[in-house]
Amino acid sequence: MTTVDPDGGAALNAPVAPPAPAADDRLSLSHYIYSTVRERIILGQYPQGSRLPEQRIGEELNVSRVPLREAVPWLERDGFVHSRPRRGAVVTGWDAKTIDDLFDVRLSLEAGAARYAARQVSLGGPMDALNRTLDEAQRTVAGGDAYAIARTSTAFHEAVVQTSSNELMVRLMQSISGRITWLFFLTSGLPADEAFHDHVLLRDAIASGNERVAESVAYAHIERDRQPTHLAMRDRMDA
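Predicted structure:
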């Protein structure tokens, strides 16, 4: 970079410091770390109850510990890790209460969202998100990939909430959707075709515009899986 001598002399060639990393770039890196670590937790690469291996993650992703530690609070917020004194971040474990807590929240949130989604559709609101995610879910069920099925099943439930047009409900759903995917994956032995059939029924109930029917179908669909989920998780839960 060329600068002018303040005394009016010849131009000076001053060295230029490299630009600092943009805040957006560092945020994007932390989001990448968050999504990668979250996926590895879901897939069991970082087991429940184990200490999050910061050094190993940093080496595998070729990142420093700074963006990694920025991602940890997001993982904790979304229920994937919790901090323990002198142990750092520890991967969350599932037990009977955490399963019931998630089901209870889903019943309160998603059944209400289905009701309001039907209302929006009756007023001319779009069904695009529901139809698109249902089509994608059908393809993944046919493919048999457990993780893909878990993700597309969650995406359908997110689409129900999105169709409600309630922004607060959408934000609340975002905070639990990762845990829903995690539990869906851990219980992938449950019949995926039955869940897909329920999704078709729920889509049709919302399309009818009948709020009470949509709400009751959503409630029945979620609650029906509670006991089978507990049974499927018997060998995966903390004592």
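Summary: Residues 95 and 235 are 10 Å apart (CA to CA).
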